[in-house]
Each structure stands twice: as C-alpha cells, then as structure tokens.
Design brief:
512 residues; alpha/beta; Rossmann fold; 6-stranded mixed beta sheet; 33% helix
Length: 512
C-alpha cells in the first residue's frame, strides 16, 4: 500500500513580473523523510519553499497536506499545519535575547497576563539538551556566534510545534565540525517522526544526510530520486544541464614575492579586556592566497573587521606595502586599495532596495569618474555597470531594477565586480561562496586565482575546508583569538586542520 505523502505540491507556477520563478513544479515529501532540493541560484528552490511556507502565494497549482488540499496563506497558517522554516538569512531580532526570540508568538503566561520566562526557559533548555545544543538563552542574539544563532532558529521552530522543517542552506554558516552535529540533530528529529526539507548546494552533504533528492533547473523540477540511485557527478550534470568538467586552476609562480601585508603582535580587546585577537603575527606576500581557518567565533570576524577599518586595535602594527594602516578608517583602507568581499552580502555588501547600477559604485561614489560636485554622473555609472555586467557575465533584466531581484549568485558577482575593479593591492574575501551554486562558486574561485596570478595578495576566510585547500598557498588556523598553526595545503588534510581548529596541538596529539 502506497503511503500518503505528508506534503505534495502539484503544478506550482509563480511569476515575478517578467521572471518565471516556478513552472509547473511537482514536489512530494514523505513522512519521516529528509528530502534535499538542489539546483543553481535562481533555479526556483527557495521560491518553491517560500510558497510552501506561505511567504508567497502561487499563481496556480495546489498544495496537499496528508492527502487533503490546503491553502497556506501566511507563515502563521503554515505553522498551524506544523511547518517551520529556517531561512538562509536569519529572521531573529538582534537586540532580543535568544529566549525572547524563541518565544515570540508563543509566550507562556501565568496569572493570565504575566510572562512566565522561567517555564519557557525550562522547556527550551530541555529541548536544547535533546538536540545537543548549547544556547545561552539570556544573551542578545547579536552577541552570539552565527552557528549558535542557527541553533536558536531551530529551537524556535521546534518550540512552536513544527513537525516539518524547511532548512535553507543549513550548513552555510557552520564550521566543519558543527555540521556533523547538525546532521545528528536532523537524524534524531527524523527518528522522532519529523520530516525535513533542506535546500543546499553541497552535494557531498546531500549524499550524507538525504533520503531523497530533487533537482531544479530554470524554475522546473528535472529529477527526483532516492539518494541511493544517484551520485554527486550525476546530480551536478542534472543541475547544470551539461556534463561537468574537472578543470584544475592554473596557478602561476610569482617571480618576486614581496610582503604586502605584515601584522606584528596585533591585539584587539573587547569590554572587560577579553582578547578577541591575541598577538597576531602574519604576513601575506604578493601573488599569494592565505587561507584563514577556524571555528566560528575564534577571531576570524575581528581579523577581517580590523583589516577593513571596522575595528580598532589596542596594540601592535599593521603595515600595507610598507605603510602603517593601523586603526585606519574604512574609507582610508579603501583608498589604500584594500578590497573587501564581506561574509554577509545583504548586510555589508549591497543595498537591497537600490538599483543594480547604484550598487556597482557603493564606496566609489565620490570618485571623479562617478560624481562632480556631489552630483552623480549617471551616464558614466551606467557605462561602468554595463561593462561589469558583460565582463562578469551577470544576468539582469534591467539595470534599473533593485538588486534584490537578482539571484544570490548574481548579487555576489556584483560585489566581486565592484571590489576588484579598482586594481586592489589586498583582497579580503570572507566566506565569498557561502550559499552559492556550482557555477557561481567556480566564478568567484576563478577571479581570486586570477587576482593572485596578477600579483595581488588575498586573505581568504572560509568555513569550507575544501575551498581553503583548493585555493590557498598557505592556511593559517585560528583558535581562541590566536594563530595556532600555519600549514601548507599539499602537506595536510582536513582532519589535521580540524584538530588545530579545536585547539589540539601536535604536542597534545603526541601525548595522547
């Protein structure tokens, strides 16, 4: 007897003006299944799941819950059916505590009107213990590491009674050793009867955690099958619509390696004299990519902020091309030809509601090419933007559209095009391919290698060890605000780097 699917979406169509995001899409989720949805940026994955969660309404088609047709008009109605969604860009309120964020909309009260925080905290702590989460409930969300913020999102949807979880790029913000913890959590939830949908680009993770996989391309479903009946190469070919090629990067030798960036005993402290960066010593040569590895919250963010003028140092020296840039402002670091690809493009890389061409000149708008006496030169801005669109193969309908209408991959291409256009000396790339598909990630990788081959210096911060091993000439590993080891990619592996990331030194390993 065939089991009735817990969720079935039939013939879903959704247009955004001239863009067809979903075209006659069919999707089925079986009870107790972990079902992965894969595809390039703009393939329609997130749109389909936002329809399921009630954030969008389909133009046509139907949704069935446990065999009966339902109308999901809002996230509230989705939650009433037991659906919960953890989006790629979190929906938490930064100034609220984790506890306050979790209980919003399901406040526990006593005596009719008084919030019973103690009861809610006990229930959430019990739930967190079952999942193996350690979330400080009474700290503001903005003070917590990104991985802990994700745990808060998971606790929130489960606390609100979700039995069907939709997770958009769930591992994009996690360090490698946190990912297995998340997978164990997902397996436990599955064992308790929950059904899970994950949107992801990481095919190795699909093979590890999913029971079923659906491939989407250009708004359509092109393949659905049990995970046992496929492999990463087949999935990649379905995603791209063509055979994949494994082309190695052409890494040129640099004739004269000159130290471009030198950090000497750099220390950064927070309130209470806690050392966020502890006597950092590092040099980056011309024509070199130095990767930065580390579990989230061990100083990588502060390192990037310090180099891009967003955070002051308390002691030490920072030299760029022989000139001190210690405690320079963001505007000054830009003038010194430091380019920055930020970890969160929505918060720090683009202005979502502004036009595409306006985003191409963020931080450059005072240059004489783009303005004269505070008046913007729209003709030059559009000429510059069209050249970048062509050079970087950025797909847009109208350059006057808000940049939020672009896929994540094309948004990132705009950031890369803008930042690399000024012939920078040093490129700070923080998680530059987070949430990107195969094509978009390869594009960013290629641009970083090309910059390296032209003698530029690159600092690459990433939680993806495969990415660091692929691109880096050296990898510096951070733990507790310190650089605890610098390794050569050809002479190490993910396991050895992972030990350094956890603070296990070679001496500790020898003693064990």
């Amino acid at each position: 007897m065939t089991q009735t699917p817990i969720i079935e979406m039939r013939g879903i169509n959704k247009n955004f003006g001239h863009v067809r995001a979903n075209e006659d899409v069919n999707f089925t989720l079986q009870r107790g299944d972990i079902h992965a949805i894969v595809g390039e940026n703009g393939a329609g994955k997130s749109t389909l799941m936002k329809i399921l969660y009630g954030l969008y309404q389909p133009d046509s088609g139907g949704i069935y819950y446990d065999g009966s047709q339902v109308t999901i008009s809002s996230p509230r109605s989705a939650m009433q059916l037991g659906l919960g969604m953890i989006q790629q860009h979190f929906t938490l309120i930064p100034t609220f505590t984790a506890l306050q964020n979790i209980i919003i909309g399901k406040e526990t009260v006593k005596h009719g009107t008084i919030l019973d925080f103690n009861k809610a905290e006990n229930e959430i702590n019990e739930l967190a213990a079952q999942l193996g989460f350690d979330v400080p409930l009474n700290k503001p969300i903005e003070s917590l590491p990104i991985g802990t913020q994700q745990h808060t999102e998971i606790l929130k949807v489960l606390y609100h009674g979700a039995e069907i979880l939709i997770m958009d790029e769930p591992t994009a913000v996690l360090a490698p050793q946190e990912i297995e913890g998340l997978f164990e959590c997902m397996r436990n939830l599955k064992g308790e009867g929950s059904s899970i949908i994950i949107i992801t680009h990481k095919l190795d993770e699909v093979m590890t955690i999913a029971d079923t996989v659906t491939v989407m391309r250009q708004g359509k479903t092109v393949e659905t099958c049990p995970i046992a009946d496929t492999d990463p190469n087949q999935l990649a070919e379905h995603i791209l619509g063509e055979p994949i090629s494994h082309k190695a990067f052409d890494r040129k030798s640099i004739e004269e390696e000159i130290p471009i960036l030198i950090l000497e005993n750099v220390t950064v402290t927070a309130d209470g004299d806690k050392k966020l960066l502890d006597t950092i010593n590092l040099d980056v040569l011309s024509g070199e990519i130095v990767g930065i590895a580390g579990v989230e919250g061990n100083g990588q963010t502060e390192l990037v902020e310090m180099l891009t003028g967003l955070r002051k140092i308390q002691s030490g020296e920072i030299m760029l091309n022989g000139e001190s840039i210690a405690n320079a402002s963001s505007a000054e670091t830009r003038k010194k030809k430091i380019a920055h690809l930020p970890a969160d493009r929505h918060r720090h890389g683009i202005s979502l509601n502004n036009r595409i061409d306006e985003n191409f000149i963020i931080g450059k708008q005072k240059q004489t090419m783009f303005s004269n006496n505070a008046l913007l030169n729209s003709k030059n801005i559009q000429r510059f933007s069209h050249n970048a669109l062509d050079k970087y193969q950025i797909q847009v309908w109208d350059i006057a559209d808000p940049i939020k209408t672009l896929s994540g991959g094309n948004q990132q291409k705009v950031v890369v095009a803008r930042e690399l256009s000024g012939d920078p000396l040093l490129i700070i790339a923080a998680h530059p391919t987070r949430g990107l598909d195969i094509h978009a990630a390869n594009f960013v990788h290629t641009r970083l290698i090309l910059s390296r081959n032209r003698g530029k210096s690159v600092i690459l911060v990433s939680s993806d060890l495969d990415e660091l091993l692929l691109l880096s000439d050296r990898i510096a590993v951070m733990y507790n605000g310190k650089i605890v080891g610098i390794v050569q990619p050809d002479n190490t592996n993910k396991q050895e780097i992972g030990k350094l990331m956890l603070g296990v030194s070679s001496e500790d390993k020898d003693k064990s």
